[in-house]
Every structure is written in structure tokens, then in C-alpha cells.
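All the exercises in this workshop are built on plain-text protein records. Sequence and backbone structure share a record, each on its own labelled line. The question running through the whole workshop is how a given chain folds. The record below serves as our worked example for the rest of this section.
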Amino acid sequence: MTVTSYNPADPSDLVVSVEAPGAAGTAAAVERARAVQAGWLAAGAAARSAALSRAAEAVEAHAGELAALIVREVGKPLAEARGEVARTAAIWRYYAQAPYAPSGAAHETAAGEGLLLTRRRPYGVAGLITPWNFPLAIPTWKAAPALAVGNTVVLKPAPEGTACALRLAELAGLPEGVLTVVPGGAQEGGALVAAADVVSFTGSTAVGQAVIAATAARGIPVQAEMGGLNAAIVLPDADPAQAAAHLAAAIAGYAGQKCTATSRVIAVGAAYEPLAEALAKALAATPAADPADPATACGPVINEAALTRLTDAIESARAGGAEVLAGGGRPQRPGWFVEPTLLAEVPAEHPLLAEEFFGPVAVLLPAADLDEAVAIANSTRHSLAVSVHTRDLDTALAAADRLDAGMIRVNAPSSGVDFHLPFGGAKSASYGAREQGQAVLDFFTASRTVSLLPAGAPR
């Protein structure tokens, strides 16, 4: 199988073409990683810390090149691409300190002499399966903590992010076998899940559920992030212009291709009319345009299949009686572009209200009060992120306590992540331990209890 990746802003531009190794080649990559894992761990905290710091420095030294590659391969607007590169370097540097963190604790014995220790040790080979939408940051926030605690890594990126993943691994400059990129598709992903000692996955719900089942059958740890059907709740006391600016960024930024993007806007009571007007205006001012232009916020969607799915959904909603408040069409330009779109009066049974479409399309919904707004926001199994827009702290805290989501952001776009904090959703949005922050270090290690008793002591 040949893996190809094309520029979504110019589909005639082939970014990379590389042969996939197949199942056997993937299994062999895991075995090579396993063969060097003990040496990587034994090199010690200082060596692993220095290696991750060098990776951060290499990313920073090639920041312009990497940003341009992100723009070209996945169509991310240049301003966001630059931000992703900076974030990638910061993640490497953040986890460069992790090798020095305590790996366990000492405990008193229940009775008599001796010492009890708990220690956390790496599993061996971490198999990472990553999407294309953050082609440097997501592989890094999985690989860096796994490497910091002594695992080696085999990374299977989405085909559309292959060039970025290969370049990232090349720049990281780690010893041979410590960080390996396996280009490919479902065959390589399945082989990696079947061979790795611990698995971290980000992608679609259907594939994530298959990964969870496969790892459960093997009895190995897994974390799976599977996206979200995210809501924004706007209360009547919110400034409609400010709320609209936040929502437009979360709907149209990077063409809505973030698992934390807003796809359902819930306007409470009197907020509906002024918000509808302000948000339609904000989206109209955020056109789908050339991602290489620093002024662009909304670029193309990733491929023709994504474009077709989005335009078909918009047309079927319109045919069912939905009102198009903004967008609804395609710009007259080459590439896989769709206008940022806001729909009202969408039929209750329409898939836009139940499925993640991963594009710059949102549905505006009315709610009589906060109770109804919370009920609407919670009416999905894909509960990753919710934003709440209000000037009232009591209302914000009350909403935060009742929302079933992994991330709740007040007076901010839903589409924001702090890499030093735990990241994940609720219900079917996530499975297993949280990613990022310090929490992920526990995921990539197993706890061991060690009892040290004096020689000859009674047992």
C-alpha cells in the first residue's frame, strides 16, 4: 500500500508518497522498539531529559519550515500552524522535566522492620495512533510523556498527516528504535494495537471503540479520545458581540476541524435574537480562504470526502426546513473549502444534532432557561467540551456543576486546551485515563509494590 497525502487547499499538490510496511513491518517495528527499550530506560533521567530538551530545541529551530508544512499538508491556517509549532516545542520541554519526578514512594511496614516501596515503571513499547488535525502537537503530547518515563514509541499517524509525523521524528533525533513512525492505514493500526504494550489513540468513535475492544482482549492499558459534539450556552446577560466572537472562532477556526470545536449553540431566552444576528455577522467575517495567508482563520476541510459529507448535511437540513443564517455554500476557489455555516430550525432527527461532522457548521438552538440549556447540552454521548457565556459567576458555577463534559470553559471558546492540565471527555467522548499534564505519566507506567525485609526476618 502506498500512503499519499495531498494539500487540501490545492488537491493537485502531492505532499508525500511513501510505502506502508503492512502488518508484518509494523510488528517488526514494535520488536525493534522493544529491543532498545531497556537501554533507553537504563540511560537514566538525565539522558532522557536532555533528549527531550533537544527535541524541543530542534522544533524551535525549524519553526518556519514546520509551520509551512502544517499549512501545506493539513490546510491549517498559518497563524494557527505557528501556534501549534510553538506549543509542540513547549510540550517537549514540559515533559523533559518528567524523568526527574518521583517514580514512587516509601511506606512503613504494618509491623516489624523493613521498608515498603511503590514504584512506577514503563510498560515497554507505547503504540500511538494519531489524527491529522494537530499533526505535530498530538503525536508530541502522546510521545513525550511516554518517552520521558522510559517507554519506547511506535507512532502510526493518520495518512493525511504523514509528512508532518515523519519530519517531527526526524527532527527529534532520538536513538534508533526509540521513536519510530509507521506510515499506513487500518492494517498498520491494527497490527500496532496487536503488538504494543500500551496504546494511546485519538480519532473517530467507531475506530476508537474497535481499539478499545482489541486492547481489552489483550489485557493492556488503553486511552482513547474520540471527539465531541460540543455545545456553547449563551445566557441573556452575555455580551452578544463578545460571545459571537468566541463562538465564531470555535465554529470556523481551522474549518471546525478540532475535537473541541463548537457545533451546537444554545441561546437562552432573550439571548436568541441578538446572538443569531451577531453570530451570523461574525461568521460572515470569517470566510474560508487561503490558509497560507496570515489573516485567514478558516481554511479548507481535509479532503473531498469531508467536503461532500458537510455539503450533503447542509443541503439535507435545508431540505428539511432549516434556515441558513450564515454561509451554506462553497467559495469559488480550488480546493476543499466550505463556507462557515450557521443553521436554525434544524429538524430534531437530523444527524447534525447527533453526530460530529468535523467542519465549520453549527446549529443554533433555543432554550427557555438554564435548565433546558443544560439538558440540551447533555443530550449527547459525545461530551467533550462545553462553553458557557454569562456575566454571572453564580450561573457559571451552577452550569459547570451540572454539565456532563470533560472540559467546561466560561466566557471562552470551547476550542482551547492547556497542555499542562488533564484533557479528556465524558461518556463516549473518552475512554481510560486522561491525556496531558502530569496525569498521563501514570497512564504510561505500571505501579509495583516492593517489600524489603531484613534477611532472616520472619515472614
